[in-house]
Amino acid sequence: MTHVITIDGPSGAGKGTICQLVAKRLGYHLLDSGALYRLTALAAERQGVDFEDSDGLAQVAAQLDVVFSTTELGVNILLAGDDVTRAIRQEQVGMNASRVAACEPVRAALLQRQRDFRQAPGLVADGRDMGTTVFPDAPVKVFLTASAEERANRRVKQLQEAGQSVDFKAILEDIERRDKQDRERTSSPLVAAEDAVEVDTTAMPIERVLDVVLQLAQERLG
Ligand code: DC
User: Fold this and answer.
1) Ligand 1 — pocket residues by CB below 6 A?
2) 92 occurs within a structural domain
3) Domain that residue 142 falls in
4) What distance separates the 2 farthest-apart alpha carbons in the chain?
5) Contact partners, residue 122, CB within 8 Å, separation at least 6
6) Has this prediction a pTM greater than 0.85?
7) 19 and which of 11, 126, 170, 176 could share a cystine (Cβ 3.0–4.6 Å)?
8) Considering the domain boundaries, does residue 47 fall inside one?
9) By alpha-carbon position, which residue is closest to atom 5 of ligand 1?
């Protein structure tokens, strides 16, 4: 049985970095499920599929032609042969991904694709519903949170480091809008699994969060 560690939570709680570090430390595979929703949104936009057209969106999700490859610099993503590693991280794609993710047929179309990432020796799954829906039997479940202000601060820093000009207020509003959309949707809303350990990272340095997660994995997986 291949072990799975699920790490769920809202955008900007530090999940992405923590998942990469945990996967690296344990030599596990990594599933960035948010990237699949972002890719669906980008592919739909490129193919001219209306964001109100659930069946059209589900078809885009089912037929996603995507290749993830791990490089020295991180994960590289090709969509229909085109390198979209950076393009899918744009704020607008994130907002569209949140809309697409509220569509049940899209979630259903992506379910098996996500489960297929479960490969030996183990998987770290980053998302919103990894512990509740995609891998409900995972032995280690973490739910990372942080205040919206702290998450906006981290996002601003990230974007500035990437050379983009940013407006804190607009980023905070985006985060709050997306949280609301993700929490209130009827299909797989953003909520901690009953057996998840919640960690508030607002005042925690990343190394401390990593320690907490690795400690938990050690306790549960031996
Ligand atoms: O983690 P992220 O910001 O890359 O995710 C983009 C959007 O995808 C986010 O607004 C919610 C959605 N998402 C989801 O609904 N379920 C997941 N497992 C992962 C992401």
Assistant:
1) 11, 33-34, 37-38, 94, 97-98, 101, 127-129, 178, 182
2) yes
3) 3-216
4) 49
5) 2, 3, 4, 5, 26, 27, 28, 29
6) yes
7) 126
8) yes
9) 34
